[in-house]
Amino acid sequence: MADPKGFMTTPREEWARRPVEERVRDWDEVYVPGALLPIISKQADRCMDCGVPFCHDACPLGNLIPEWNDLVSREDWRAASDRLHATNNFPEFTGRLCPAPCEAGCVLAINQPAVTIKNVECAIADHAWAQGFASPRPPERLSGRTVAVIGSGPTGLAAAQQLTRAGHTVAVYEKDDRLGGLMRYGIPAFKMEKQHLERRLGQMRAEGTKFRTSVAVGRDVRAAELRARYDAVVIATGATAWRELSVPGRELDGIHQAMEYLPLANRVCEGDLAESPMSAAGKHVVIVGGGDTGADCLGTALRERAASVTQLDIYAQPGAERDEDLEPWPTYPKIYRLSAAHEEARDLETAPAADADARLFAASTLRFTGDERGHVRSLHLVEVDEARLPVPGTGRTLPADLVLLALGFSGPDREDGLLDQLGVVTEPRGTVARDAGFATNVPGVFAAGDAARGQSLIVWAIAEGRAVAAAVDLYLTGSSRLPSPISPHDRPMTV
Predict the structure, then answer these.
(1) What's the predicted TM-score (pTM) here?
(2) Are residues 150 and 173 in contact, defined by beta-carbon separation less than 8 angstroms?
(3) Which residue ranges traverse the bilayer (predicted)?
(4) How far apart are CA 77 and CA 73, in angstroms?
(5) Residue partners of 301: CB distance under 8 A and separation at least 6
(6) Residue 423: helix, strand or coil by DSSP?
(7) Residue 238: which of 298, 293, 168, 200 has the closest Cα?
(8) Which strands form 363-370's sheet, in the order they lie side by side?
């Protein structure tokens, strides 16, 4: 490490966000442009170069965090980029979107604020692009083997890039008109501007990866045809089958799934629409679900000028500090976190009835009521205890012209017929079954990412893509030098 006392002399400092009043007027990323590089070398100095770096185990990619922290502290950006890209295909994505389980596993976090690993990662990635360190890496020779990857989210893209670089001819099939999966139409631009995605896609095209957009395998192309055309197929469609809320009044107009709402706002940013047909402008909005997707809806509704926005979370409000008995270091703790969207809601006071920022904690929806035209007008809720049972006398009503359901996803969508046509076996929860080598019951067909693992984090998605690529390479050639950071059965660190 460059400064052995850095963790004692330098306090944690994170990438500054733009003022709330400024950033809610646009869709640009929330951070102050150019404010990261001036602070990041000193922040990297805080890394203790631990004898046993638990940040490695907390990250499914096995990122070489102490190594690139040391290189950044010495401002050796090219070497830092090499070490970062050795384990992560898309660090500019994870540096913006990952909740950073590596920081929860930082040894410094035992009794001090963790190293800003996520910020360092993002700085390296952005600097690599600015300095031309992320040039395309096409294969020296082709193997003559072909692979179809179904889905262009982080799993599909990681698998495709690894397999292309190994010399296979890879085609990525995407049902939407643009590539990126949820990174394109699910993640709002204020969290990650799409230029980062386009830049990486350009690199992949230059390396030789082929892309087929607006093609739903199972509907536009029969799965059997795809299977016959390619030597191997990777299912990386994600988990897009959203969970429902079965309460009275669900049929009312104005109640939508989050993933019906967010893509429209993203299409406005892409220039496809002048205004979203589900715009929250002037409406009282209630978001049911306390996770990241709900926070994305919150930030989007604020930028659309909603009259009010409230987010319901069925869990009790967590504390500000880790509970060492229930969630000891180095596990990822459930603590009170203030995302950019929640900071905006707090400062703008968009939900006066909320417990904190825009959230009502320990809240469960009982029913919806509407007007004579069949449009939702109110949401009735009740507080719940730790067992999620209603607490008597705590019922209340919120005005609601637009309700967004952000309750997570149960597995891949089966409407296009892909899984049935391929004949792959699924687990009871709806995900694709696979063996220890990421292979399904159908020879030559593999499954990775949320489609098989279930809803997870972007860092796990990329790790799955890299691992399934190694499995496919082994299947095609009999051996593989591609890294395989995880197995299908690995899970995040828990008690």
Answers:
(1) 0.97
(2) yes
(3) none
(4) 9
(5) 280, 285, 287, 309, 402, 404
(6) coil
(7) 293
(8) 363-370, 376-383, 396-399
Could you give the angle at which helices 117-130 and 37-44 cross, rounded to 10 degrees?
Answer: 130
- Cβ-Cβ contacts under 8 Å for 401 (sequence gap 6 or more): 254, 283, 284, 285, 307, 375, 376, 377
pLDDT in tens, 155-200: 999 999 999 999 999 999 999 999 999 999 999 999 999 999 999 9
Residues 396-420: tens digit of each pLDDT: 999 999 999 999 998 999 999 999 9
Type of residue found at 116: T
DSSP one-letter code for 156: H
What are the CA-CA distances from residue 54 to residues 62, 167, 458 (Å)? Answer: 10, 34, 20
Task: Choose among 334, 341, 330, 343: nearest CA to 114.
Answer: 330
CA distance 47 to 404: 41
Q: Which two tokens stand for residue 254?
A: 């104005």
Q: How far is CA 469 from the centre of its chain?
A: 20
Interatomic CA distance for residues 462 and 334, integer angstroms: 23
pLDDT at 333 over 70: yes
What is the pLDDT confidence band of residue 4, given thresholds at 50, 70 and 90?
confident
Report CA torsion sign: 271, 276, 281, 284: negative
- Tell me how far CA of residue 121 lies from CA of 91, 293, 301, in angstroms: 6, 23, 29
Specify the 3-state DSSP secondary structure of 309: strand
Q: What is the rounded CA–CA span in Å between residue 125 and residue 40?
A: 13
461, 449 contact by CB (below 8 A)? yes
* Torsion from C-alpha of 307, 186, 86, 103, nearest 10 degrees: 40
Rounded distance between C-alpha atoms, residue 288 and residue 359, angstroms? 10
Cα distance from N-terminal residue to C-terminal residue, the chain: 31
Share of the chain above pLDDT 90, in %: 96
Backbone φ, ψ for residue 357 (5° rounding): 40, -115
- Both tokens of 107, joined, read 């040894």
The single residue listed with the structure tokens 């009275």 is: 248
Across the beta sheet with 169-173, the strand order is 210-212, 169-173, 146-150, 232-235, 445-447
How far is the C-alpha of 25 from the C-alpha of 19, rounded, in Å? 11
From its phi and psi, is residue 220 left (phi > 0), alpha (psi between -120 and 50) or beta?
Answer: alpha
Residue 15's contacts (CB-CB under 8 Å, 6 or more residues apart) are: 31, 32, 35, 36, 39, 116, 119, 122
